[in-house]
Amino acid sequence: MKKMFLSSSFYDTSHFLKDFVGENLEGKIVTFIPTASAVEEVVHYVESAKKAFEELGMFIEILDISKADKLEAEKILRKNDFIYVSGGNTFFLLQELKRSEIDQLMIELVNAGKLYIGESAGSIIMAPDIEYVKYIDEMKKAAHLESTRGLNLIASYPVPHYGHEFFSSMIEEVITNYNNKLPMTLISNAQVILVRDDDMEVI
Fold it and tell me: Is 161 tagged catalytic?
């Protein structure tokens, strides 16, 4: 079964994870991918996510897709229990996933049942296309991205940080320009999209 936990802020929603997974999380190892944050100045959410996993009794193994050897990255992703992808610049994240061809491996693993945890950019890349977040993220930070086609593992287009003061004007731009064009799912920092195969719910 395809299972994804797609959040705006993992730290603020991590308490939902255990019930969603349906098993004890203590001792589980998560592949922690902070790549989207590499081109951003504000990165406090990366440390917050690490703390959240620590509080759940889990272990993390850092994997920066922009720097890792492809074979080593594949070994780590296959070996560990879960995959977590942090927030940051969605376009840079997608660029690096495609450049390394890790995007195809991630699709394979998620479709095979490995739990995927996304935060902000890490949630957005699961949409059919990420072009709609150009009002939130700077496209110029991914100079080598040839296509904005996402991993296409959900039919919806997540819009994270809904209701957050810092993002309000940017999110309004997204809504204004895409409300009648795309099936968007708006989530606040306290909400999470739970995906089970083709079923989605927001809690």
Answer: yes
The one catalytic residue in 66, 161, 168, 188 is: 161
Q: Which two tokens stand for residue 81?
A: 């229990």
Q: Give the tens place of pLDDT for each residue, 144-155.
A: 999 999 999 999
The CATH number of whichever domain residue 33 belongs to comes to 3.40.50.880
Confirm whether 120 is a catalytic residue.
Answer: yes
Active-site residue, selected from the candidate residues 7, 120, 164, 168: 120
Question: Whole domain around residue 125: which residue ranges?
Answer: 3-202
Q: Does this model's pTM top 0.90?
A: yes
Split into its structural domains, the chain has a count of 1
